[in-house]
Amino acid sequence: MTHRILVKGATIITMNANRDVFETGDVLIEENLIKSIGPEIENPQEATKVISGKGKVALPGLINLHNHAAMTLFRSYADDLPLMEWLEKRILPAEAKLTGHDVYWGTSLALLEMLKGGTTTFVDMYYHMDDVAQACVDSGIRAVLSHGIVGINSILGNKTLKGAKEFAQKWHNTGNGRITTMLGPHAPYTCPPDFLRKVLKETEHMDTPFHIHLAETRNEMNDSLKNYQKTPVALMEEVGLFERQVLAAHCVHVTEEDMDILSKRKIGIAHNPGSNLKLGSGIAPIVKLLEKEALVGLGTDGAASNNNLDMFEEIRLSSLMQKGYHGDPTLLSVEDALSLATRRGSGALQVGDIGVLREGAKADLILMDFEKPHLQPSDNPLANIVYSASSNDVDTVIVDGNLLVEHGRCLTLDEEKIYFEVSKSAKRLRV
Fold first, then answer.
1. Which of the two ends of the chain, N or C, has the fewest CB atoms closer than 10 A to its terminal CB?
2. CA dist., res. 24 & res. 11, Å (int)
3. pLDDT mean by block of 10 residues, the chain; 431 residues
């Protein structure tokens, strides 16, 4: 029997090219695709499940472009510190103790938080990635995964590059196509130019995108200018990284010339406003990047530097930060802010079948419960989502045509087991 889900009578925010919003409409899902969508679907074919949209708003599942999911294990462990002190004195020593078991359960906790909060696709870079991928398969989420590569010495560089290549080839297009892979050189300051050239040469036969941290802090910019007489972005252009498809996390400290390079090369940019604020990294020039038609989306970063994975918080912050920084309340409108987590996020990944509700797109959608005091009156649902909503307002989540969250309860993950295992791991890792 064909698997069909009918969402009936919801307010629908499509995020399509026409910015269509249906005050009351239906969405018919067949297998893993949206079969039809509109004000009312007449005589729908027999649905295996009908979901009432009364009092709810349907929108595309949110896309989290940058995460280190298993770092939920270090939530609230290393707060109020500069980035390099946070990394070198707290996080790296704790990460040295990680096992695959820890990473599986830390990732599962992140997946539980993301799914219940309306995130249907996320991008991850970490270690013990086989365990990350398995957790993603088990949960039903859509994920783009990369094994971290660090080239500060030849032994570590060779080991992590080998692991990254093997992981990318093993897991690409698994989980019914929900799991895809990237290569993950950590950053220019952990992957020097000669090593990056080696990575590019050894992977030239692979049609695999790259995921890298880039131009996150002022110190990174200053060190790059001192050591190479180039900005981090210009250095990556010279090395040849931008000949490949790249997703660059942060891009906070960039020059006008850097932004032109990022736009011209169609580099995906993962803007992480919450993490950038908390670590004191600065405010990325998102308005200018968008004016230059750069490919910008949103991410949370890991829970050790955020400290939550609430994409609605990132949507709101992205808009408010630009308005406040530039002193202009008209910047980054509600539609533009929401698009960073949906349609534009899809564009930054350079995939066209998620981040939008339209016929033929992947059936990744969420329903938000608008029968809440902070979401009333509900005559402007876009503004309510951007300025008033939180992850706690998500009622229903469908990924790849499968119902994963119903009435706020995750159907694929055992919450009690996850909390138990994470508690055990966290206690050992934090000693």
1. N
2. 5
3. 91 95 96 94 79 97 98 94 86 93 98 98 97 98 98 94 98 97 97 97 97 97 98 98 98 98 98 96 98 98 96 98 98 98 97 95 98 97 98 98 98 98 94 64
Q: What's the 3-state SS for 37-71?
A: EECCCCCCCCCCEEEECCCEEEEECEEEEEECHHH
Number of domains the chain is built from: 2
**Token code pair at residue 100:** 């695959």
**Are 152 and 29 contained in the same domain?**
no
- Whether 161 and 242 share a structural domain: yes
**Looking at the domain assignment, is residue 38 inside a domain?**
yes
Structure-token pair, residue 405: 């969250």
Q: Are residues 170 and 209 in the same domain?
A: yes
H or E stretch at 130: helix 129-139
- Structural domain includes residue 21: yes
In the block, which residue shows the tokens 């067949």? 30
pTM recorded for the entire structure:
0.97
140 & 31 share domain: no
Q: Render pLDDT for 288-347 as a digit per residue (tens, 0 to 9).
A: 999 999 999 999 999 999 999 999 999 999 999 999 999 999 999 999 999 999 999 999
* Strand duo 33-38 + 119-126: pairing: unpaired
